Amino acid sequence: MRTPHAAESPGRSSGLASDDGPGEVEQLRTEVRNLKSELARERQQADVARRQADEARAASAGAVARARPRLGWRGPVCVLLIVIGCVLAPVSVLGVWAANQVSNTSKYVENVAPLITEPAVQGALTDKISSAVSKQIDVQGVAKRAAAQLSRRGLTRLGALLSSFSGSIAGAVDGLIHSTVAKIVTNPVVARLWIHVNRAAHAQLVKALSGKKSALTVSNGKVVIGLGPFIDKVKHRLAARGLTLVNSLPPINPTFPLFSAKYLVRARSAYRLLTTLKWLLPVLTIVLLGSGIYVARRHRRALIGAGVGLAASMLVLGAALAVGRAIYLNKIPSSVLPADAASVVFDTIVRFIRQGLRVLLVLGLVVALAGFFTGPSVTAVRTRAAFRSAFETLRGSGERVGITTGRVGAWVYGHRLGFRIASVAVACLIFVFWTDPTGLVVLLIAIVLAIVLGLIELIGRPPRPSTRQDAARQA
Hints:
- The structure is a single chain.
- With 475 residues, this protein is mainly alpha-helical.
- Among the domains are: 4-69; 116-203 and 215-259, no CATH class; 376-466, no CATH class.
- Helices cover 80% and strands 3% of the residues.
- The protein contains 18 helices and 3 strands.
- It has helices spanning 4-67, 74-103, 105-112, 119-137, 139-152, 156-164, 166-185, 188-209, 228-240, 261-295, 299-331, 339-349, 351-373, 378-400, 406-414, 416-433, 439-459, 468-474, and strands at residues 217-219, 222-226, 255-260.
- Strands 1-2-3 form a 3-stranded antiparallel β-sheet.
- A hairpin with a 2-residue loop joins strand 1 (217-219) and strand 2 (222-226).
């Protein structure tokens, strides 16, 4: 038998189900309407906040524009310090180079050592040494004297024949001397001898500048190095090839000009000053530029100005070197040094100046660009936003295929400022402790730093904003 309760239970359960279904739908619709209205309110609040921010920026810009006529002391002092620092920068480069060349024998030898490997200088040395040896031998005179002796002994025809060919014989011997000297000059042994001779000459120069007794040679207003040791090498080689006449020659010591003697007098009076300014000028330049950036109202703008000014001062120094090169080549006579050899000598001597100015030129441009692209200008902001968007897209693409940095990325994002500061500090230390950096080295350090900063931005995984569903699920 069915009981009344058993008969009523299905109907009751069906009625509950039919009553609860529309209620849940209505509740969901209410929640959706509430969410939409709340989202609309948030959007409205965001629009209000954006308008307020725009008005605040406009008011700030107006205040800055109104306050602009009142410069104060920071602006002029900042400009003055940076300008003086930029003016002293090329002077510092010249001072360090001059001090190294004047007082440091090792630096001087390192500077002039490549000259002996230059074809133009080798040709000039070959011509000077060959001419000096040929003048001492005087083959044509020897041939004519021998022809006269033959004629006196009755060998008139033979004497006349020898006299007529004396010029050809002299030319052949001169050619033998020249070819022998050319082979000797291009020999690595002579390269070592060149370094030895220049080291000894510079040691005498240092003695002369410091007021000590010196054997430095001055000839025709030029400080020169003697080529006697090279002549001795040539004599031994010619004697070995059968021209034993050279053994009876007196000592021969032609000279090779290095620089004007008037510069020696000036350098002697400035010797002590140069050795002091070698360290003082660079430090003073850095202090002035740093102080100018520090006292500025807008540090980033001052940093950009200092970088641009440093690069511009190096361009001025490069132009001054070009003018000095033209003056030097016009003043030195071809009889003293051929034009091609003179140009090689000048370019080799000043190559460390050019290397230093290239380093500071690239460094100034890198600092100026870094200051600009980290600033608040529209171009800088859009550039950073474009890179940030590209990194987010790349990170999102990786996460969609299962590549994610996880907790490491979140930790890197939380400490990204420290990583950026550490990266810049390491790059600065690498530049400071790099031995003889070049402009290319500075550029490579800047590129590697940019890549490292990009990796920090890519690896850093920002936390995702929590939604209401997540908050409800967690509750």
